Records
---
Amino acid sequence: MIAVLGLVVGVVAGLLVRPEVPAVVEPYLPIAVVAALDAVFGGLRAMLDGIFDDKVFVVSFLSNVVVAALIVFLGDKLGVGAQLSTGVVVVLGIRIFSNAAAIRRHIFRA
Amino acid sequence: MGTEETPGGENRSRELPAEVQGPPPAEPVRPAEDAAPEQDEQHQDPDGKAPRSGRQRLAEGLWPPRVTRPQLIVALLLFVLGLGLAIQVRSNNDSSALRGARQEDLVRILDELDDRTQRLEGEKQRLEDQRTGLENSSDQAEEARKQTVEKERQLGILAGTVAAQGPGITLTIDDKKGSVEADMLLDAIQELRAAGAEAIQINDVRVVANTYLSDTDSGGVRVDGRKVGKPYRFKVIGKPQDLEPALNIPGGVVQTLEKEQATVTVARAEKIVVDALRAAKRPDYARSSSQ
């Protein structure tokens, strides 16, 4: 419940405060958000499976974000940034969908 | 997503005890879960109860709210996620599509903008040239119109179709004996013209280029076919200092007329008004050849 509250508070704060994102980080923000979403879905699934561990969640969350941003950064440097970010989004999307399927089976038993 | 699932999870947790026995459906998919890195730890249940279903765990996590370390950590991370989400959504809605655009896209957009700017600059230049041309031509038309009006006025004075005023002299010839004839008046007119007279009027007849004078049988004079009464009053516009000596030179107009027993007076005036008019006559045959 506290976690859900945290998400809500974060969204509201982002909409209200309108913080300025540094220009260096800006291109990686969408990818980082998608990666974080993937980590959250993974964490939710793990919780439903009964194997949730906060330490693992924190590490996976941060590493997901960092690795996704790193891949896009590398792609930008190599000149294939657009393609690589598409690839990252596709992979993360597939994982989100498979995790969502597992969560669905837990909750709806179907 | 958590907010959406909250009511569903709660509702289902109420009816859950009836079907606790059901096999945990998560089992078949568990091997495929290598994507989620949270599988190294097997248990987080603090109490060693019987294994519960995913729904139960979700319901427990959601209600009642417990302030535990994992909850706080997850809340912190989710806060960060929500923040990033909101920022990203807002910056996408910000209508500044350029924010977060890639370098090559920006270069392309910049090129397009440069091209467009050049095109528009060219068009602007063309339109400004056109405007300058139009302004010049309208200026010229206005100038030509002014000159035409001015010229019309000058020609009107010459042709006698407009009134004129200016410095000049009045020449009065009082012919008591009736000895003054048309040729003497014509001599006076020629002398005045030679001295630079610009507009002449005898009594109420304007003297112009094609004015003619003739004697009448009764000893008077006709100007342009109209009989003018005595005394003959010339109103002349011109330079008085030129006109008066021209009439008074020895053997000139004044002396000749005085020889004929006529009384001649010449008076300078600062303002002479020549207001006798002639109708403009359209020539029947002659046409302007300047067009």
---
Amino acid sequence: MSLSNQPLVLGGRTFASRLFVGTGKFSSPALMKETLAACRPALATVALKRADLSGAHDPFADILDFLEPDKYLVLPNTAGAMNADEAVRLARLGAAAGLPKWVKLEIHPDPNYLLPDPIETLRAAEILAREGFVVLPYINADPVLALRLQDVGCAAVMPLGAPIGSNRGLETRAQIAIIIEQARVPVVVDAGIGRPSHAAEAMEMGADAVLVNTAIAVSPDPVRAAKAFAFAVEASRAAYEIGLPNENNRASATSPLTAFLDT
Amino acid sequence: MAFSEILPTLPLNRWIERARGAREDEAMAVLKNGRARTMEDFAALLSPAAAPHLEELAAQSQKLTRHFFGNTIRLFAPLYLSNECVNVCKYCGFSRHNAIPRITLPAAKVEDETRLLAKQGFRSLLLVAGEHPKYVANGYVAECIRRCLPLTPQIALELGPLETADYAPLVAAGAEGLVVYQETYHVPTYHDLHTAGPKKHYGWRLDTAERGHAAGFRRLGIGALFGLHDWRLEAVSLAAHARHLLKHCWSSYLTVSLPRLRPAAGGFAVAPENVLEDRELVQLMSALRLLLPTAGIVLSTREPANLRDGLCTLGVTHMSAGSSTEPGGYSHFDESLWTPTRTQPGEQFHIADERPPQAVAAMLRQKGLDPVWKDHDRALSGTRQPPLFETITATSDESAAPSWIPQSR
């Protein structure tokens, strides 16, 4: 039984979990599979560049064979693409290979910080949304870009908390707050989430989901780490739904001190 | 501004002095930070004073590497196209005057060799050739790329340097990476070792990576060949080059190699003062990781198995395995054992780690590292626009002299 009573609805599908997990950086595909099974994410993203898209089940590019689409949605991503054309081509190949017609759009021309290119991302999003893809773009936490992407038909926006793999948490918190306030599609905080408390912080702010990869994959115990993130996401989402108490600088007695005046 | 113009303006001597003579507390201060933020920091980590703290340095390198790259190592194979070469390089097996059997593989034969490598698992190749304007011509290399691409989606090139306009068709054919080692960054040594052929032009070679970037290669590989000159000078120069490329070619992925000279035809002997010892190699690789946490570090089969087994967990991101350095060499391998069935007289140098690819992959798994064979898709090849909207004009006049040839020629 889930603590949260509002399931995530995204791209016309309903998800029981609000945790998304990336599949890179694991020490083996078997461990990745076990981790995903243990934390039951809503979806798992997979880099199309690492997969065999020919349908030949290449034993040297068999990452797809370790994913379980009956347990979570497999979300192809365009990592490696440096411009819109490459991302569009990869997305189409993934769909042609029988993967869901969904795409996590990642375009990072800077291979060192892997920060997303806003111009190419908007261009590719427009093309892919028009072609009927459910498009989830990875973006810097830029509220206007988030709105522009919603205008061209993206099913969600995925602003980063901090650079990929940095584990630094919500460095872009103020901008994410604006994106959440203005959003008419789900907001998924992606990248930079290094601790369950970072995930909880995003969920308590009203993010609809979070995506975690590095902090799980390079953990000494990925299976338990993934579960820890799943619990944090569920607990903080429930708290958000219930309504978080206001913060108050002054003392507030649980029994009013001046009630005797009213009697 | 190109690196060949920048290099003479850098305080190299100051850095080298620090690499030789930093105090222990200076090295320790950098180590405590966990990162080398400046060239001064990097130089201090190379110093003899840092050597007693190698274990700590290696641990930090490992931590940064796992953090950015995860628990993975990318595998690739070199495929030698040709050993014909017009250059005279005193240390290289392919040097023009060495009496070795010379061959340029026909493109169909290159495809056969690629098929053999693909069966071993490789989805990433490095096509290597000597420098010969007649045999290793542009059309030939483009044809090889086109034939290999359906079998292995990721293809990098290690050829004699070309003009930007001549690289463009190779990018269009689907090549993804360009590798060129400066060999030695020490100018007098460079001129002493490269006595004839286009390679004798130091600056022309030094700016190759930048021309490759302008042509649209998405991955650039640089390196120095350790054993030709003092290793600390090479290390400092190589690091400065890497930092230059990270700024000026920001949209290319940078890899760095630290090859050590191996025995080869010609019998070049490494001077004792130029030897990079095993412990120093680890120190250098780790220091480089602290300076460049996101750069790829490539480790070839030049190094022996026991050393590779140790190095792969410390900072390395890319490894070759089961290599032949002779054009056509893989056709003389036993397919199931992946060992040569005859000597390889036309090889560039003799490799040290002779294990087959699957044995190397098994070793990586045993160390908790996932061997990644495919990390690139053909959909990403041959499509990239040259960066910065730079206009590349094709050389229409075949006889036009490249810019490095002195006017007085």
---
Amino acid sequence: MKTMMAMITTVAIAAGSSFAPTSLRAQENNAETLSAVMERGVLRIGVLGAFKPWAFRAQDGTLQGIEVDLAKRVAESLGVEAELVEVTSANRIQFLEQKRIDLIIGGMYDTASRREVVGIIEPGYWASGPSLMAREGAIESWDDVAGKPICAKQGVIYNQLIETDFGARLMAFAGNAEGKEALRSGKCVAWFYDDSSIAADLATGDWEGFEMPVDALFVNPWAAAVPIAEKDGAFGKILSGLIYGWHEDGTLIGLQEEYDLQSTAWLANMHDSFAYDRTFLAD
Amino acid sequence: MLEFTAPLFLALQQTTGLNFSPFFDEYDLGRLMTGVQTSLLLILCVLAVSLVVGLLGAAAQRSRFWVLRFLVATYIAVFRNTPPVVQLLFFYFGLGAFTPQVDMGGWYEPMISSFGWAVIALGIFGGSYNVEIFRAGIEAVPKATSEATEALAFSPMQTFVHVTMPLALRFSLPALASNLISLAKTTSIAYVIAVPEMTYALSGVWNDRLNVGEMMTLLFVYYIAVVAIISVIMGQLEKRLSVPGLGK
């Protein structure tokens, strides 16, 4: 009886929402991408190219990394082939809007303004926040950046914070490599980027004499994204379910260990809060 | 400025969804203004450097010393045959790694800023074309004029400065105008070394606000305006300097 009531409610809500003008377009073609993917037999996933260890070119030229791994898992679940398309943080949304890719798994922060243009999938699959990499002793706190040149990457959503909140002079480069090279050759005092990525860089041993001297300003989840019309369609719901499962069954924590990343409180919390109580099966 | 534009552009956004954020958001307006100032200053400096390099190069090409002529030929070959983006990155990251650092009171900054490198790299790039443009102009000056100056007992230097160059400049103007316009547009690539010119500023805005179409339109209109101004100036210059009968 209870399930019956729930079903009726769901149908009623669905019927009600279909009359709302905002969801009209969404209702019309909210399965377009999924059916195109199934027909094509290929899922085109936008991943970043130089984003170690989430997505990067390995020695043999193939794309590897945590996000590449996740992208392949999505394709495998759908029973189609995965086609990895290299995108940048500045063009990934345009690629999705132009239907050059079906899905973004590209280190993208979930933000209110992005939710207006793409279908952000809940829950997020990773989380990180902005921090600094600098020469040992050069920076002690966030207030130390005032008036100094700080390197960053173009297209990163929080770039303006370091100018507006801390009065630094931002120098944003097109890629991570250029930004970090600029730090190494002394063109700026620090590299302003994600703590997760900085930790990964420091772990490689290539950054002797550098450190991450400050805590992240905030923690923001990373979300996969589908065309906005399909967020609440089958494609969006499949992805939501997959990501929920990756948290619940420890896939994401496993990848964190596999790629030698420091364990984060956020992933552990997600794992705990999504854990499904199966103790009732015991007897 | 914002108090005049904000109501208009906010209304535009509400009615049409078009988001021209620099005209109602203070931070974006700041980025736009920095972008316009940096871009105009960059264009001015790059054009000036390219003209000086072009004139010096064209003069050196006529030198009696083969070493000097060889150096100019090498310079032209290298800078005309490599893309300006590659040159920018080479100057900034390659040579930039060897330039001295300046103590700014507790931290260090390179002696030559990214703006400085953009002026040097693009100025030299544009200059390599200007050398050839001026050479073509010099070669178009009829031999008879130098024979006439010789008869008037001008030294070769006097002939070059007072007769050949002024005439050569007039012959060069049309080609020079198109090269300067092309060079002004090329300054947009300075964003790769984080020079906060227009392309850099507006791509920053569209990354934060996701108003890509609107900001690209603004960028497009800006460059059309800049090029139109340069065209008018060069056209006026050509008219002012025209000598009746020359080149006809």
